Amino acid sequence: MTARKCFIVVAGLMAASVAHAEDIPSNAELFRMLKAQQQTISELRTELKQAKQERRAASTREAREVATVAARAGRDAAKEAVAATAPAQAYAMYARAPAASLAASRGAYIGVFGGGGSRGSSGVSQFGTAFFPEIAGGPQAVNATGRTDSGSVGFGGAHLGYEWAYGTHLLPAVEVEGFYLAGNQRHATLANPTGLAEQSFDNTFPTRTTVVLANMVVGFRTPYQGITPYVGGGIGAANVSIKGATSTQIAPLEAGINHFNSNSDSSVWTFAAQAKAGARLALGGSGAYLFGEYRYLYVGDANHMFGSTAYPSHAPTSPWTTSFGGTSHHLAAGGIGFNF
């Protein structure tokens, strides 16, 4: 390459370098450009944050509006349901009481029942006078004492009552009931040590007892649907009826002589009380229910009067007073009842 050409090339390169140097911004210009970009980024961040806050506020307002509409609709539906129900049930619904989950009280109810159990022994005494002639040592007072045996009984009866709700757990009720105890054949051996000679009597007392009681019963609500345990107690009266009583002297033996022969029947009223505990099972929504229970029954003292001894071959006697002590019974019963 010639010197002239080289000079031209070098001159061109120098001119290009000068032009390029003129296009490069200064440090001050670069700083201003960087600061402007930072300002722009900051403004964008502020706008983005504000947009997010506006969207969040809009979502909150929409949720509140939806909740308000739903609550208003629920109150309207509850008011319509309350208006369509009975007053007591409506109050429970409006007050948000858990009425649907609790066993309802029975209101008025009636039931029939039956069962069996045991009768305890009791003290018994037989008092009278045998009018022997004075020459034979008479008259002779008889005051024989002993105890009846224990035995089994069967019974059946009915009750009528009214139950209401008290608080959230209790179901008190008042009721009247009557039942009949049968199969109660009492037997006793009595000894009289005060006569001319020691005497013993073998007695039988076929007994039927009718019991009438006023009861207070308290049921307990449970989490088990349709099952209600209860306890109760009552007082009243019992009619103790004895038909065909016999009193045979076995020492010294008087064969074929019933000392009550002129009147072997007697009936008296006495005190009665009971305690009971059991449970009932509702039969769906029919208002009917089954129940089973244990009862302790106490029948008070009873004083019976039987006829005098009237045989041609036997000395006449006074009427016989026979007194029984209180008698305890342990009974199991089952039955069915109905609400109405």
Automatic annotation (TrEMBL):
<feature type="coiled-coil region">
    <location>
        <begin position="27"/>
        <end position="61"/>
    </location>
</feature>
<protein>
    <recommendedName>
        <fullName>Porin family protein</fullName>
    </recommendedName>
</protein>
<feature type="signal peptide">
    <location>
        <begin position="1"/>
        <end position="21"/>
    </location>
</feature>
<keyword id="KW-0732">Signal</keyword>
<keyword id="KW-0175">Coiled coil</keyword>
<dbReference type="InterPro" id="IPR011250">
    <property type="entry name" value="OMP/PagP_B-barrel"/>
</dbReference>
